[in-house]
């Protein structure tokens, strides 16, 4: 898969106070709005569907002058800005996630209210994915055909589409929406699940 | 009998007759001239209208031409920004209508965009924004061939907003002009802090104490005031808390 290239960070990413929770209510709201937009565009750029909130390779408390590898794991440099050495705390990060949740753009992976460490970032919601797939079915005249989930995400036939290579769990969510819309039917078990489009 | 020129009373009478003739001739002349004048004026008017329309593009795209045009209008006593539906008599309203249209449109549109930028950024800057940043923001969002906008243009555009009351005004912090779109006025200490922030983009309590020779409490109060107004952001991950101007986020 081709790498999308480096993400063009906005100015606020290099603004030290951006990583401190602002006390002024209005300022804080502007801050949350900017963070939300940043998280969404960053994840869209890297095609990150599930975002870890505290990356595995946590840096130590003391600042080091060690160079970070150029190909850092996507997600690592979102809440930490190496050039200015500022990090958004986990507590403040959760606040951003909750802000996104209100807009339906985020969901904790464990489900329910339990706040784990991995989050669905819906830079495209399951509903939006559903509409995309529906459109593709129309365009390619696939109504009435049956496909496996694997074919949809990994098959040659879907190469070049937006949903090729997408997280299969998220695709399932999207297909469930299509089922509700009466546009599809899912059958089969686990590994050999298939979908028929109407 | 003979109406030929003569002297004496007869001549006097004749001169009176001539005067009357001259008078009537004069008034004929005047009315003829007035007619000619009006024809001339209407020709002039339409030429002027053509000029304004032809050069509308130049007025929009060339700030030097625009400034010169504005100066020319001022020199002949015409306010190009005057409302075109003014009922003031004389040539003024007519001229304003002919010449002012394109200039009017330009500044009106600019004022609208300035108001938009102020509205969009009020959350992050508390309603105080440097004119330079507004200009940069507008130039960045401009379409190809849109022409240059100067800080002078922005100041004029904000001037046209005066009828909206004190909602939009130009304030100076140090030597730099800012647009203030909230009623809150800055006191001396707050202005001094904002001026100090201009130097590095941020200040700390220690920096204010050292450079302005203020007591700690005074520095803290001014900074907290400004944070309270949403005009400064605070960074708590530095050794000493640092207070930043939000303008940094608008830089290109």
Automatic annotation (TrEMBL), chain A:
The keyword Magnesium does not apply. Keywords: Protein transport, Transport. GO terms for biological process: macroautophagy; protein transport to vacuole involved in ubiquitin-dependent protein catabolic process via the multivesicular body sorting pathway. GO terms for molecular function: protein homodimerization activity; structural molecule activity. InterPro entries: ESCRT-II_cplx_Vps25-sub, ESCRT-II_cplx_Vps25-sub_N, WH-like_DNA-bd_sf, WH_DNA-bd_sf. Gene3D superfamilies: Winged helix' DNA-binding domain. Chain C. Domain 1, Winged helix-like DNA-binding domain superfamily/Winged helix DNA-binding domain. Signal peptide: none annotated. Belongs to the VPS25 family. This is ESCRT-II complex subunit VPS25. It comes from Immersiella caudata.
Automatic annotation (TrEMBL), chain B:
One of its GO terms (biological process) is protein transport to vacuole involved in ubiquitin-dependent protein catabolic process via the multivesicular body sorting pathway. Keywords: Cytoplasm, Endosome, Membrane, Protein transport, Transport. InterPro entries: ESCRT-2_cplx_Snf8, Snf8/Vps36, WH-like_DNA-bd_sf, WH_DNA-bd_sf. It is found in: Cytoplasm; Endosome membrane. Gene3D superfamilies: 6.10.140.180, Winged helix-like DNA-binding domain superfamily/Winged helix DNA-binding domain. It comes from the Eukaryota. The keyword DNA repair does not apply. SUPFAM superfamilies: Winged helix' DNA-binding domain. It is a peripheral membrane protein. Its main location: cytoplasm. The keyword Electron transport does not apply. Coiled coil: none annotated. GO terms for cellular component: ESCRT II complex. Belongs to the SNF8 family. PANTHER family: EAP30 SUBUNIT OF ELL COMPLEX, VACUOLAR-SORTING PROTEIN SNF8. Component of the endosomal sorting complex required for transport II (ESCRT-II). Component of the endosomal sorting complex required for transport II (ESCRT-II), which is required for multivesicular body (MVB) formation and sorting of endosomal cargo proteins into MVBs. This is Vacuolar-sorting protein SNF8. It comes from Immersiella caudata. The lineage of its organism: Eukaryota, Fungi, Dikarya, Ascomycota, Pezizomycotina.
């Amino acid at each position: 898969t081709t790498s999308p290239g480096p993400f063009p960070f906005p100015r606020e990413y290099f603004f030290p106070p951006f990583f401190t929770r602002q006390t002024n209510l209005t300022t804080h709201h502007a801050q949350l709005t900017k963070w939300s937009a940043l998280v969404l565009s960053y994840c869209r750029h890297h095609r990150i569907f599930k975002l870890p909130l505290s990356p595995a390779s946590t840096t130590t408390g003391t600042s080091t002058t060690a160079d970070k590898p150029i190909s850092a794991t996507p997600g690592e440099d979102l809440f930490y800005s190496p050039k200015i050495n500022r990090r958004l705390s986990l507590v403040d990060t959760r606040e951003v996630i909750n802000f996104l949740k209100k807009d339906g753009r985020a969901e904790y992976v464990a489900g329910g209210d339990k706040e784990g460490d991995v989050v669905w970032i819906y830079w495209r919601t399951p509903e939006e994915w559903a509409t995309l797939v529906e459109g593709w079915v129309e365009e390619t005249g696939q109504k009435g055909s049956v496909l496996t989930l694997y074919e949809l995400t990994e098959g040659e036939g879907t190469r070049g589409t937006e949903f090729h290579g997408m997280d299969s769990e998220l695709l399932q969510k999207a297909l469930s929406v299509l089922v509700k819309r009466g546009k599809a039917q899912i059958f089969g078990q686990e590994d050999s699940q298939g979908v028929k489009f109407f | 009998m003979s109406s030929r020129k003569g002297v004496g009373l007869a001549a006097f009478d004749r001169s009176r007759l001539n005067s009357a003739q001259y008078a009537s001739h004069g008034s004929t002349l005047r009315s003829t001239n007035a007619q000619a004048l009006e024809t001339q004026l209407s020709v002039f008017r339409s030429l002027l209208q053509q000029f304004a329309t032809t050069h509308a593009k130049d007025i929009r795209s060339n700030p030097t031409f625009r400034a010169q045009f504005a100066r020319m209008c001022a020199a002949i006593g015409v306010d190009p920004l005057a409302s075109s539906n003014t009922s003031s008599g004389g040539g003024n309203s007519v001229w304003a209508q002919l010449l002012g249209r394109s200039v009017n449109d330009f500044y009106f549109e600019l004022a609208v965009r300035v108001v938009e930028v102020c509205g969009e950024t009020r959350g992050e800057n508390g309603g105080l924004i440097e004119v330079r940043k507004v200009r940069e923001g507008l130039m960045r969002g401009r379409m190809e061939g849109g022409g240059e906008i100067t800080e002078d243009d922005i100041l004029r555009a904000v001037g046209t907003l005066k009828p909206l009351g004190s909602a939009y005004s130009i304030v100076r912090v140090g030597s730099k002009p800012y647009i203030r779109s909230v009623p809150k006025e800055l006191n001396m200490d707050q202005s001094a802090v904002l001026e100090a922030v201009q130097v590095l983009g941020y200040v700390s309590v220690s920096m204010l104490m050292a450079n302005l020779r203020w007591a700690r409490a005074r520095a803290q109060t001014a900074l907290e005031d400004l944070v309270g107004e949403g005009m400064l952001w605070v960074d708590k991950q530095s050794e000493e808390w640092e207070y930043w101007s939000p303008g940094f986020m608008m830089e290109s």
